[in-house]
Design goal:
The structure is a single chain. By secondary structure, this protein is mainly alpha-helical. It has a domain of 134 residues. Helices cover 57% and strands 0% of the residues. The two termini are 16 Å apart.
């Protein structure tokens, strides 16, 4: 099985995303109703991000599509991506998404996973300088950046679970927002929360986790610490050369891909592969070899299952894209 992001694989991922970013049902809303007038359909509530089963998956579905268009502009599917983005990523529709944030009880809407992916989508759109998608998306990304600036000082403790609430994963993506104040806040929080972590036991995954708490933390620290990262990482996983902890090096088993929560475990394999490949790039020699081998095992386990049941198909290609692109 190839572990490279080829045009053929990118095109397949794009076809998957095109098949769900405008598929309104089934849909799982993150929505608090304050009265009967709030009983509305996903597309009434969210002019852009009403597909892909849930709001955040739709956001990163668009991220995947724009990424494919940028990396492989000559693919036929890139023309369809352009047409879709021209239709959907507009100032008027973004205004509708912004209006949702002003509703009662929306303060915790998609915190922090969806916040971070909205910023990542804007950052990807900004790389497409022949279109005005980033200009249209900027107010929405800025709104979520402001929410990070407001929320992080009040978040005393990190959230280490391997699901949407994970702090490290969200902060890594939020670094895409070009604001020195936010970058400094993220760096300070990361150092305070994780800087003294030693000898990680990696008691994971939980039964419905799609992120590695340990490796998401390590990936954030790579970006925050820079040249200090290898010393921190050696203390964080001091027995890596001896093949420990095994829980981080071996893929997780997925017993039922029709179960939306258990299907998260395919995402755990793919997101671990991404993290291991990114970590490998910071090291020469044995650490890089161990990390890349672990990434390959995790890709072998879950890359064949990106498409199939909708419980995985509406989001897994994004994490496969991250993992495969990290090997480019």
């Amino acid at each position: 099985m190839t572990h490279s992001l080829t045009p053929e694989i990118a095109g397949r991922f794009a076809e998957i995303a095109l098949g769900h970013v405008r598929r309104e049902y089934p849909h799982k809303l993150d929505h608090v109703m304050d009265g009967p007038e709030d009983v509305l359909s996903p597309s009434q509530l969210h002019p852009i991000f009403h597909g892909s089963f849930d709001w955040h998956s739709c956001v990163h579905g668009y991220w995947l599509l724009l990424r494919v268009r940028r990396l492989f502009p000559d693919l036929e599917v890139s023309r369809r991506i352009e047409a879709l983005a021209d239709e959907m990523l507009t100032r008027g529709k973004v205004a509708g998404e912004l209006a949702y944030l002003d509703r009662a009880y929306s303060g915790g809407f998609e915190r922090p996973y969806g916040w971070a992916w909205a910023i990542a989508l804007w950052a990807e759109a900004a790389r497409h300088q022949d279109r005005d998608w980033a200009e249209a998306l900027h107010p929405l990304a800025a709104a979520f950046a402001d929410r990070f600036l407001n929320f992080l000082p009040r978040l005393t403790y990190p959230i280490r679970v391997g699901t949407h609430f994970n702090s490290a994963f969200a902060l890594k993506l939020a670094l895409d927002w070009p604001d020195p104040k936010l970058h400094a806040l993220i760096a300070g929080k990361a150092r305070g929360w994780f800087g003294q972590d030693r000898d990680c036991q990696a008691w994971e995954p939980g039964g419905d986790e799609f992120l590695s708490s340990a490796l998401s933390e390590a990936l954030l620290m790579k970006h925050v610490l820079g040249d200090e990262f290898p010393v921190w990482f050696a203390a964080f996983l001091p027995r890596l050369a001896q093949g420990e902890p095994v829980s981080l090096l071996e893929p997780v088993f997925v017993s039922d891909r029709n179960d939306g929560k258990i299907a998260h475990l395919d995402g755990c394999n793919l997101s671990r592969a991404w993290c291991w490949r990114e970590i490998a790039n910071a090291f020469p020699g044995n650490v890089a070899r161990i990390a890349r081998a672990a990434a390959d095992r995790h890709l072998d386990a879950s890359l064949p299952h990106v498409a199939g049941d909708y419980m995985g198909e509406h989001w897994l290609a994004t994490f496969a894209m991250l993992a495969l692109e990290a090997g480019r």
